[in-house]
């Protein structure tokens, strides 16, 4: 499957990339630092996958050095670049906020995964606003993105988001408000979208012990690792139960 991945150098995005490559997908990424990404390719380990694509918890694996032969780095001067038939990973050097470069990254895509965070910038909202429009124009329907537990529905006030109630412990609401915009844009779109909404997200490996709920946070959930979050994001490519939903994710 041909996947466009945004946010591939982030804490969770780099793990999503590993899962996609281990599973044999053809991946295009658009990153500001190809050098950082290429270093991460050989220093990041995820569980091996069995024949059904399920993680083998006790077997961590890195991409083999021979994978370097399948990596192609492209600087798209125009939107008309073409995929190499040999490369499994195409690294485009650019900024997701540049709509022309974003358009180039979407060429031939069958699905898009976004691991872009707020990061005290406008990267999330600028990128997602353009991305939704470009995907609809190019008939790329499937979008999986990472949000925040703040935009899940409150358990105590069903007409409010968690970040609007005492259920959220975040002092600043900025990140949640940015993710809320994305959620509301997606609900108004024709895309087949899923937003994975982890609660507190420390670095950590895959455990498989997570809980998932439609649109609300699992009761009593307080944290979820980047490793488990990345696997849930990756697994949505084969799971249609959460199309048009937010996934509350926690232990």
Task: Report on this structure.
- The chain is α/β, with parallel strands linked by helices and 251 residues long.
- 25% of the residues lie in helices and 23% in strands.
- It contains six helices and eleven strands.
- The protein has helices at residues 13-22, 34-41, 99-105, 123-137, 174-187, 226-235; strands at residues 2-6, 26-31, 46-49, 55-61, 71-74, 89-93, 111-114, 142-146, 192-198, 211-214, 245-250.
- A nine-stranded mixed β-sheet has the order 5-6-2-1-7-8-9-11-10, sandwiched between helices.
- A hairpin with a 5-residue loop joins strand 3 (46-49) and strand 4 (55-61).
- Helix 1 crosses helix 6 (226-235) and helix 4 (123-137) packs parallel to helix 5.
- The two termini are 30 Å apart.
- The model has no long low-confidence stretch (mean pLDDT 93).
Q: Which terms would index this structure?
A:
11 strands, 6 helices, 251 residues, alpha/beta, nine-stranded mixed β-sheet, two-stranded antiparallel sheet, 25% helix, globular, single chain
The whole-number mean of residue pLDDT values reads: 93
Strand order of the largest sheet: 5-6-2-1-7-8-9-11-10
Structural class label: alpha/beta
The total count of helices amounts to 6
Largest sheet: 9 strands, mixed
- State the distance separating the first and last CA atoms: 30 Å
**Estimated share of beta-strand residues:** 15-25%
Helix content percent band: 25-40%
What is the oligomeric state here?
single chain
Low-confidence stretches: none
Radius of gyration: 17 Å
Morphology: globular
What's the count of strands?
A: 11
Order of helices and strands: EHEHEEEEHEHEHEEHE
